[in-house]
């Protein structure tokens, strides 16, 4: 057996877990960083063990190393450990228990307030700040920073789950964390040691999401049917009931009720100092 064989086998297994055995993409380069990324899974049950000293700072260093639009650095992160604040944040997020259970909870903030303060201090009106574009820049920055932290955490043997449900009530979150105008918590992140790491959740085949030169949908229906089968089996194995991806999408965005308050998000953001022009 040559020295490349174990890596090649690991790669095939990782791609099979990510896409299913029938949709493994053609061979390409591979290394430990990529293997780590393909092993990602969200974790919703944590052991009580604390994260080691200095881990928070390492995760933030990874976050700070992400690209940031025009180097504006329009994100911040609030580390929350106070049980009363965690309980209130869990309440905002429809009672998700892992928020109270994880040893480290991070709220990622799309933060235009720092640049607004810069403008005020310099006596300059930042004409671009009230525009939707500036919010989008900040939200993209926050997401890239957070995802770098996730990759770093997973490389250290920690697990995570994002908590978009904080957007159920961004005004309450801002109040709990003392956010200034122009700063909004766009999602949370639980960090800790998994009680049960669970399985890698398969994704849509590359043929659905990867387009060459022009966007195409010819095979999408057949690909969705195949993915429904894959995800139904995954869900059944992972005690979520035999739910297809099609049913999941419909349940998640088919009704305003399922938005759990986020149908008011644009108005709430305006109240937090984002005009979204
Ligand atoms: C921005 C964002 C918000 C999310 N919000 C939640 C959430 O509130 N609760 C939750 O349990 N999972 C949440 N997730 C995790 C997704 O459900 C999960 O990533 C998806 O089902 C794919 O599963 P995987 O991460 O295990 O591969 C969120 C993910 C993202 C990227």
UniProtKB/TrEMBL annotation:
<dbReference type="GO" id="GO:0016491">
    <property type="term" value="F:oxidoreductase activity"/>
</dbReference>
<keyword id="KW-0560">Oxidoreductase</keyword>
<dbReference type="InterPro" id="IPR029479">
    <property type="entry name" value="Nitroreductase"/>
</dbReference>
<dbReference type="InterPro" id="IPR016446">
    <property type="entry name" value="Flavin_OxRdtase_Frp"/>
</dbReference>
<comment type="similarity">
    <text>Belongs to the flavin oxidoreductase frp family.</text>
</comment>
<protein>
    <submittedName>
        <fullName>Nitroreductase</fullName>
    </submittedName>
</protein>
<keyword id="KW-0285">Flavoprotein</keyword>
<keyword id="KW-0288">FMN</keyword>
<dbReference type="Pfam" id="PF00881">
    <property type="entry name" value="Nitroreductase"/>
</dbReference>
<feature type="domain" description="Nitroreductase">
    <location>
        <begin position="39"/>
        <end position="193"/>
    </location>
</feature>
<keyword id="KW-0521">NADP</keyword>
<dbReference type="InterPro" id="IPR000415">
    <property type="entry name" value="Nitroreductase-like"/>
</dbReference>
